[in-house]
Amino acid sequence: MTPPQLDGLDRRLIGALHLAPRATWDDIGAVLSADASTLKRRFDRLVEARMLRVIGQADWGMHSTAMPVHVYLDVTGETPLAVLDRLRDLPHLQFLAQISGNYPLYAVAHAPSEAATSEAVDRMFAIPGVRRVNALPALSTLRRGITWDPGFLTGTERADLLALTAARPEGPATATPPTNPLSETERTIVIQLMQNGRASAAGIARAAGLATSTAHRVVRRVLDEQWVKPRLEIVSEWLGFHTPFQLRLRVAPGETPDVMRRLDELPQTRLTVHVASDVSVLCNGLVTDRAALAAFIDDDIAKIPGILAVNVDVALAEPRRYWLDRDRTSGLGRFHAPALL
């Protein structure tokens, strides 16, 4: 598949959807000074080209009582890509990547429970070609993938779009279930919004056989309670961001919360995690190229007090990111949405 050709309006539309993925075309058009029908046609073209998709990020407590585990895998007797392909069939894997460094493969397992997490990690040992597995349990996580911004908008446009969303700042992620069990209608709408974060209440009502008034009310509650947050996913290489990276940081005792906060403020970062390991913090991010990564480390990371050592890995391939299969050539693929509890 040939990547779609993008002009300035396409890029600004993508930037707008990163910030306000459920905003109406009229509202986005007012901010971008563009015709709403034109924006809708361009969005549909990019979806058809498999460049982007608006999904729903479910609150962790909706599908798990456990925190994720970040896993590094060493291989022997096989190529890393062959082993990576076998990992695709294992359940509960949110993220898969081939990376540089001592461990050629990296995965994130987020299973429904601690027992299921243990089983998921245990099954990795049985994959042919896996020599060693190093599992790093997450202790706390700041999620940035949903709020990562490619920087295509002016400051005024960005502020106007954020005002439309009225989104609350994202704090540390926890696997805390809703106070009361979801009704069947609520579960149905959560599942629908996970698959299509821009789905309208009227469309959900038709698909689920609900009264439109009921769908409107429950969709609003699901979004207001933040059980699901709309999230734009893209083929980042087609946008010019060719270098996903991971930092493994040793941090001075007592400095971890401040280091994580400082990392979370940097536009290049997507995910910041405090882990149980000989390193304190994992940080995933995305930049245009390796020169930009070098500048990020020397100009931004170097200014953060409390960091004792930095290990840098470049992602050579990311066949799955946030439950969504992806390919640099063919675009976005299957969405492995986690099952609700």
UniProtKB/TrEMBL annotation:
Source lineage: Bacteria, Bacillati, Actinomycetota, Actinomycetes, Mycobacteriales
Protein name as catalogued: Lrp/AsnC family transcriptional regulator
Pfam entry (one): HTH_24
Stored SMART domains: HTH_ASNC
Stored PANTHER family: LEUCINE-RESPONSIVE REGULATORY PROTEIN, TRANSCRIPTIONAL REGULATOR AZLB
